[in-house]
Design a protein that fits this description.
The complex is a heterodimer of chains A (about 120) and B (about 110).
Chain A: E1 5-7, E2 10-13, E3 19-24, E4 31-37, E5 44-50, E6 53-56, E7 65-68, E8 75-79, E9 88-95, E10 105-106, E11 110-114
Parallel strand pairs in A: 2-11
Antiparallel strand pairs in A: 1-3, 3-8, 4-5, 4-9, 5-6, 7-8, 9-10, 9-11
Chain B: E1 4-7, E2 10-14, E3 19-25, E4 32-38, E5 45-51, E6 56-59, E7 62-67, E8 72-77, E9 86-93, E10 100-102, E11 106-111
Parallel strand pairs in B: 2-11
Antiparallel strand pairs in B: 1-3, 3-8, 4-5, 4-9, 6-7, 7-8, 9-10, 9-11
Classes of the chains: A mainly beta (about 120), B mainly beta (about 110).
Chain lengths: ~120, ~110
């Protein structure tokens, strides 16, 4: 079946602009995760959802970052007033459920470049 | 919070040799330890995982071992092939959460 998809694949924006990154999880997966990966580093946790609610948003770096999942499927990560330090690959993952550590399947990522 | 350390950062082996990558974690309540392989410009892909109730798991040429007392887990790849060349990440999931905390990665190069 189809895997996790993310759009756009690349996004270039100017410092100070607002961006939205979209994630479509695997059908039937109730848990959705956002990670950020800087060059040469491991993915860094941002937030995860179980259904529509954010179960853990402890990784969001500041209040410029926000994510929603209004219908429990597609999620959007929103970044306000972008800064050059926000440049990274933003990865989305989904899993069947939460609670007993189901495998997380990653999407191809959105490469965000803030100029 | 949980912290995961990974060694070595780079590893070069001859085709056919074995490769071992080691990770340590800080949260003794961690209960799930996946390993991901990431090729250049691609998404991380799960290759094997282990839960805290077992000490070893094998899948063909890949094995993972877990020492809960020492808070260590390791990835073993036998009979390495050039297509095994990639960056490998270990990760841990702590108690009462499902977020993955990743190590810093190991770049494995397998020379023909």
């Amino acid at each position: 079946g189809a895997g996790v998809s993310q759009t756009p694949s690349n996004k270039v924006t100017e410092k100070g602009k607002y961006v939205e990154l979209r994630c479509d999880p695997i059908s039937g997966h109730t848990a959705l995760y956002w990670y950020r990966q800087s060059l040469g580093q491991g993915p860094e946790f941002l937030i995860y959802f179980q259904g529509t609610g954010a179960a853990d948003d402890s990784g969001l770096p500041n209040d410029r970052f926000f994510a929603v999942r209004p219908e429990g499927s597609v999620s959007t990560l929103k970044i306000q007033r972008t800064e050059r330090g926000d440049s990274a690959v933003y990865l989305c993952a989904s899993s069947l459920s939460t609670g007993i550590s189901y495998e997380q399947y990653f999407g191809p990522g959105t490469r965000l470049t803030v100029t | 919070g949980e912290n995961v350390e990974q060694h070595p950062s780079t590893l070069s082996v001859q085709e056919g040799d074995s490769a071992v990558i080691k990770c340590t974690y800080s949260d003794s309540a961690s209960n799930y330890f996946p390993w991901y392989k990431q090729e250049l410009g691609k998404r991380p892909q799960l290759i094997i995982d282990i839960r805290s109730n077992v000490g070893e798991k094998k899948d063909q040429r890949i094995a993972v071992t877990l020492n809960k007392t020492a808070k260590h887990f390791s990835l073993h790849i036998t009979e390495t092939q050039p297509e095994d060349s990639a960056v490998y990440f270990c990760a841990a999931v702590g108690w009462n959460t499902d977020k993955l905390i990743f190590g810093t990665g190991t770049r494995l190069q397998v020379f023909p």
